[in-house]
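in:
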């Protein structure tokens, strides 16, 4: 076999490393994605004991209180989740803030997305909302996540973070340009954790008592306002303090200056939305706030520091699959992949009984009742039924029974070919990045250009040329300024052809298309009967 051909660990050649298999272009991923499962579960186990990503972080306790409304309407119109519909109830929360790519003792002034993970210990069990400070991400298919992090982490030979590795990955993924434009501006270095937005990033669904679903995006808006740092400002802080954001949060809470965020949602009907230039399930895109406004839902206050950093911050474990009734999954391919990866990571990193730890267990008085037993470091037996001899279901001998089913369940219709698909709606891969560039103020735009110029000067010519080509298609001034600052031949960059197998900037695929480049097959007449 050609030793340059990518294979699985079982030795099977990998002919498609770009997309999960899904039911149709926008349908759910399937459990038999063996290649992805092998890849992501190995990635989850690459480091011990610190996290592979989000290793550097801090956290605090507090509470969340719902307004009982979503905007001006009763929250119950959209969801049956009690944590969002019941007023006057303070739900305990634990929030962990973090950087992404750096190791446990890396500086908090790093230009890096910031993790914003919230564990809400609701009356119906835990709800984890695991997101970032920026409202978009680099990739839209979870099968690329290990590749992305490997490119952003240190070189496996030199153990140095190399600029060319980052852009060598990014230049093949136009959907990354939006995130890069945010990250290389001052928004890539929040001043601290208190003056920072949070976002669930992925698209979820709200489900009401009638079993009707709406697409939703979740956002945390800081009452303290938003403040970011330019590169020179960050360097000045880092020269004196590599943990300034941890100190700032701890000191603020100790002096009684409790940070507060307003919880907001954006809502969209649960359908394909062909009128949009982007797929609302694509986490590399923002939902324009003039079309889908931020609607207030509640507020969160952090008012208590951890008593033990290791027990409460390091052992805190979050998962995107940890939802409560009334909040559901969408077919966002990043969300579906994260839902396996995050909880799998915790079982490896902390252990199979990580949910028995106080920081991860549901709120006091809400003891779990499962038939799960034993495993490494089990220190109590989950609550069972009347008969302790029965640890299975169903049983006629006093075991646990299923909870009552909702009067009207949510039943998504799914139909389509099973395959690996490209995203056909790619018009906004460049458009939203260009809009973001034009809406930055002069200070933000200047810092963005300076950072990219420095980066391009560290890249091989073919990578720098392709990146300038990308930036120019986002906004001509954007590409021109990067090229001029880095001494790159703009005309040579502009003359590059589109990326192989991808639509030209601003275009979309004419129809659902597999990653092989072949159009989706029509449905057979006999299959439609």
């Amino acid at each position: 076999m050609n030793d340059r051909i990518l294979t699985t660990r079982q030795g099977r050649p990998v002919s498609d490393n770009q997309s999960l298999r899904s039911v149709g272009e926008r349908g759910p991923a399937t459990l038999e994605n063996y290649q992805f499962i092998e890849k992501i579960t190995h990635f989850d186990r690459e480091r011990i004991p610190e996290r592979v990503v989000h290793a550097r972080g801090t956290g605090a306790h507090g509470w969340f209180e719902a307004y009982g409304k979503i905007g001006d309407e009763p929250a119950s119109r959209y969801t049956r989740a009690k944590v969002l519909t019941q007023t006057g109830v303070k739900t305990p929360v634990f929030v962990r803030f973090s950087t992404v790519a750096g190791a446990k003792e890396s500086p908090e002034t790093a230009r890096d997305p910031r993790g914003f993970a919230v564990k809400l210990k609701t009356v119906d069990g835990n709800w984890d909302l695991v997101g970032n400070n920026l409202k978009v991400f680099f990739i839209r298919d979870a099968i690329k996540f290990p590749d992305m992090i490997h490119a952003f982490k240190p070189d496996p030979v030199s153990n140095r973070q190399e600029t060319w590795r980052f852009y060598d990955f990014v230049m093949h993924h136009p959907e990354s340009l939006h995130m890069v434009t945010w990250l290389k501006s001052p928004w890539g270095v929040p001043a601290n954790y208190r003056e920072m937005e949070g976002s669930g990033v992925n698209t979820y669904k709200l489900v009401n008592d009638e079993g009707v679903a709406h697409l939703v995006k979740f956002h945390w808006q800081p009452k303290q306002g938003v403040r970011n740092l330019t590169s020179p400002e960050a360097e000045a802080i880092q020269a004196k303090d590599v943990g300034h954001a941890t100190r700032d949060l701890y000191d603020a809470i100790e002096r009684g200056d409790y940070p507060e965020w307003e919880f907001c949602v954006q809502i969209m009907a649960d359908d394909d939305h062909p009128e949009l230039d982007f797929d609302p399930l694509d986490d590399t895109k923002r939902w324009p706030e003039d079309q889908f406004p931020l609607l207030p839902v509640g507020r969160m206050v952090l008012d208590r520091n951890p008593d033990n950093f290791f027990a409460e911050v390091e052992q805190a474990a979050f998962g995107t699959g940890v939802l409560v009734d009334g909040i559901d999954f969408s077919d966002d391919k990043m969300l579906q992949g994260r839902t396996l990866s995050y909880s799998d990571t915790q079982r490896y990193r902390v252990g199979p009984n990580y949910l028995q730890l106080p920081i991860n267990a549901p709120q006091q008085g809400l003891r779990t009742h499962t038939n799960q037993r034993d495993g490494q470091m089990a220190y109590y037996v989950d609550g069972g039924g009347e008969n302790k001899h029965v640890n299975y279901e169903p049983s006629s001998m006093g075991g646990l029974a299923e909870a009552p089913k909702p009067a009207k369940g949510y039943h998504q219709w799914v139909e389509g070919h099973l395959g690996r698909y490209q995203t056909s709606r790619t018009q906004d891969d460049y458009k939203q990045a260009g809009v973001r560039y034009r809406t930055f103020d002069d200070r933000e735009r200047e810092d963005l250009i300076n950072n990219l110029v420095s980066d391009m000067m560290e890249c091989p010519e073919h990578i720098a040329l392709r990146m300038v080509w990308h930036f120019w298609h986002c906004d001509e001034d954007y590409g021109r300024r990067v090229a001029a600052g880095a001494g790159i031949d703009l005309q040579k960059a502009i003359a590059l052809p589109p990326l192989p197998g991808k639509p030209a900037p601003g275009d979309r695929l004419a129809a659902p298309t597999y990653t092989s480049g072949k159009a989706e097959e029509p449905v057979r007449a006999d299959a439609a009967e």
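note: The chain has a mean pLDDT of 91.
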